[in-house]
Design a protein that fits this description.
The chain has one domain: Acetoacetate decarboxylase-like. With about 240 residues, the chain is mainly beta. Strands 4-6-7-8-13-14-16 form a 7-stranded mixed beta barrel. The protein has a 4-stranded antiparallel beta sheet with strand order 10-11-12-15, covered by helices on one side. Strands 1-2-3 form a 3-stranded antiparallel beta sheet, with no helix packed on it. It starts with a strand and ends with a strand.
């Protein structure tokens, strides 16, 4: 992996041989659900240095999010699908309440991130995202989406989610990774149409037989989510920053 730099952009060669520019600009359609989970169990999945954002003293959240990438950089990589399992978290030095987290730019620890192509997996190496090549399929119309995820021939989950009405949205947030044992903060910016709505009536989760599904069961997330989320627009990922 190599790179060349300018004042604002950096060209990086991936292990797959593709070249991309950082910050990485993509366009994508996203749909998913937010589930309530047991905070103490979620904390055991986080690396040292991060703590879960608690919605109550005993409960936190898990975000399951399907992403269909339509454009990656200047089309250097072919479109691909991705499915993320994220745990809302903040550095241990910060107050881990929802309000404080939102004020500081709510972030999520990327626990698992299966993708559908090997170049997409190689792209994740830039941020040490835990990308695994698997099967991620999306079905449905504009108002609903069904996501099915399988890894190593075993189904992880099937998530059916209603897509709430959207409004123009522009915001910055961050994700956290620790793929090489070093926790990093990754600034992320979105600009497009986003929506947030109740999920317990419109969405349903069916967990499969993969070991990841067993871990989600231990988190106690159940089959009905608290919220449904959606986004369609530009998704920009900055270079990672070491979390000291």
């Amino acid at each position: 992996m190599s790179d060349s730099s300018s004042d604002d952009e950096r060209t990086v060669e991936l292990s797959s041989g593709h070249e991309v520019t950082l910050p990485l600009s993509t366009t994508a359609t996203m749909a998913g659900s937010v589930f309530v989970a047991t905070a103490d169990v979620a904390e055991r999945l986080l690396p040292d240095g991060l703590t879960p954002v608690r919605v109550t003293p005993a409960r936190t959240a898990v975000l399951l999010l399907g992403v269909e990438y339509h454009r990656v950089d200047r089309n250097q990589l072919s479109p691909y699908n991705e499915f993320g399992i994220f745990l809302p978290a903040v550095p241990e030095t910060e107050v881990a309440t929802p309000l404080a987290a939102v004020r500081g730019g709510l972030g999520g620890y990327t626990w698992q991130l299966p993708v559908t192509t090997d170049p997409a997996r190689a792209l994740g190496e830039l941020w040490q995202y835990p990308k695994t090549v698997g099967t991620v399929t999306f079905e449905g119309e504009d108002s609903r989406r069904q996501s099915t995820v399988s890894v190593d021939g075993q189904r992880v989950l099937t998530l059916e989610t209603g897509r709430p009405r959207t409004v123009p949205v522009e915001l910055s947030t961050r994700s956290y990774t620790d793929g090489d044992g070093t926790v990093r903060s990754v600034p992320v910016h979105v600009d497009g149409d986003g929506g947030l709505g109740p999920g317990w009536r419109s969405s349903h989760l069916d967990l499969g037989e993969h070991p990841w599904a067993d871990r989600l069961r231990v988190l106690g997330i159940g089959s009905r989510p608290l919220l449904s989320v959606s986004f369609d627009g530009e998704f920009v990922i900055d270079p990672p920053e070491r979390l000291d």
